Predict the structure.
Amino acid sequence: MSNFLKLVISISIPLAIGATSGFFTVTGAESWYQGINKPSWNPPNRIFGPVWTTLYIMMGISFFLIWKADTSRETKKMAMVFFTAQLVLNFFWSFIFFNQQQPGWALVELAALWLMILATIFAFGNISKTAAWLLAPYISWVSFASILNYTIWQMNR
């Protein structure tokens, strides 16, 4: 398979997951989320789409660097398993928070997501420092989202 096709696939998968989870976000954000208490520092809704799109593209490029790397199949496989697990967890946060309207459980899920992103960063770092660093904005945003999620949960108990 050509590297170009690997790049397209690598970027398309996170974007597709993001678009699918975005459905839950939009439907939830336009309903119950509008009426709950949020902190004054909650970003406007229009910020989330461009931020997540950028992060999904960076995740895809990061994955591509691992996929094309010249390293053992076993090392790549473990890194790809971590990446896949964090992507699945990423998807389910929107479903739990927005669709199920469960900020408390979404916070628990975010903790698991954060740990899996960290594991992915370490696994990717063993193969490509660039791939690992491409995930730094992602874990930073998820850290911010965790604080926001916690605050929203506390304000609406």
